[in-house]
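So, can you check these tokens?
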Amino acid sequence: MSRPNHGITPANMPSNPARPNFNAAIFDMDGVVTQTAVVHAAAWKKMFDEYLHRRAEREHEAFREFTQAADYLIYVDGRPRYQGVQVFLQSRGIQIPYGSPADPPQAETICGLGNRKNEFFNRTLAEDGVQVYDSTLRLIRELRARGIAVGIATSSRNCVQILEQAGIADLFATRVDGTVSLALGLKGKPEPDIFTTACQNLGAQPHRAIVIEDAVAGIQAGVKGHFALVIGVAREGNEEALQTAGADLVVSDLSAVTLDQIDHLAGKLLRNQTATDAPAD
């Protein structure tokens, strides 16, 4: 699902410190708030390459590596862990049992492979710590200062650990992560469930809220949820993919746009939507 290209960039949006046109902002975590997307990507590659090597040797097939552009960004990025395993393996025509979340990391099941990836991820996190994007934190603090509610919505089941390790858990009024999704039976991205749930928790309506995402599946979820504004953060050179997925605005980093400019675009889209929905004379 996509939205029309509005032809608006940070450079041609005016600054207008008027009353905000939206009252809630929901951020994805990995790659938007924290610099953990690269850790996830590396963990996915290590796990899949090891598995694909073993499978190729066993089946007497040619090994084809797991790559960032052709595999991670398309099939895995932004999805819940086990769904990412399943969707990628389906793309290679590989079928294995789903298993159980309790499966050991050595098990050749969907859950086993997912748990193996998580083992790699947690090991790196323990060794290197959590880095954040300062530009994102500045925007979050400015949003809070203006009375705009801020939440975080992510597929990650490591969300609490990451936010606490980074010392930023108190910046978010609500958290809807992989653990919450499992408990509530929420569908993963590209379905909008985690964003709409976070929005409800903040006491807001999607048409008066914005979503900030870095993954195609997350952009699609924001569009499906009918949010006022969906911003894509293209840290992987994937501007075109995020635009095609329906992002209203794409930036390489949130330092490229001000809150007033974001508010101006949200107001413009809201007014356009209101005009579209108005009954004919």
Q: What stands out?
A: The chain is about 45% helix and 10% strand.
